[in-house]
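Re: that chain you flagged

S.,

Sorry for the slow reply, it's been a week of failed gels. I finally had a moment to sit down with the sequence you sent. For the record, here it is as I used it:
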Amino acid sequence: MCEVLGVSRAGFYRWLSRSPSPRATEREHLLGFLLAEAKRQSSVPGYRKLWQAAVNAGFACGKNRVQRLLQRAGYRSVRALRPGYRRPKPGLPALPNLLNREFEVSKPNQVWVSDITQVRCDEGWWYLAIVMDLYSRRIVGWADGPVNDSYLVERALEAAWDTRQPSGGGMLFHSDQGAQYRSEAVMRWLTKRGVTLSMSRRGNCWDNACAESFFAQLKVEWLQCLGRQSRDELRAEAQYYIEEYYDDVRLHGALGGVSPRTYEAAA
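Prediction finished late last night. Pasting the structure tokens below so you have them in one place:
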């Protein structure tokens, strides 16, 4: 690795064992205080009130710095509007609804659908992006994190691609009109692999009903009874639900009463 990067071995080990800089240490202390104060107040205050609390506690910091730290940590006040209710940032134009609610698919890797959901957690919000193969309703890729952006979708797509190894040509990928899916990075990622893109009509959640239904099942059947959890705990629960229960055990009426993995194996 050192040879590839053009770094000396001694320099690498010095970097590996170096102590955090005073600036990094100060940043960690400030973020720790902000998150502890937010938790003490049940995630009610926004970044302005948390900045004021930090100043009152003796920290020398600005509002913008506090806002950046909290955004990177994925913190959101309970008073803030859910991201879905905000006007999305401008992106590439929305594409037509080529799927047209044709949810019955004859073979694997012909149509993939995707969506993102958010769940309130101890640290703020936790986001989950999934990619579903409509043929078997199997979740072929997923990714989670504290930030709802195009990189979250890219990671879910990469996981799905590694799992299925599709040819790409002739595949349809359907999503809603979220800014993450209309981003240049995601559209480039898909078109580079020869995938045709389709998007739900504005305000028509039924155009992506299968992905929406999965999130409803995840929350009602699994997460609802767990109460407020940390992001790490939610990640572990989602992994178990998707990979151990949903794909292997849960019976689907649309598949004739078998699990997605069993349906694929019998095909």
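What I noticed first: The first helix runs from residue 2 to 5.

Talk soon,
D.
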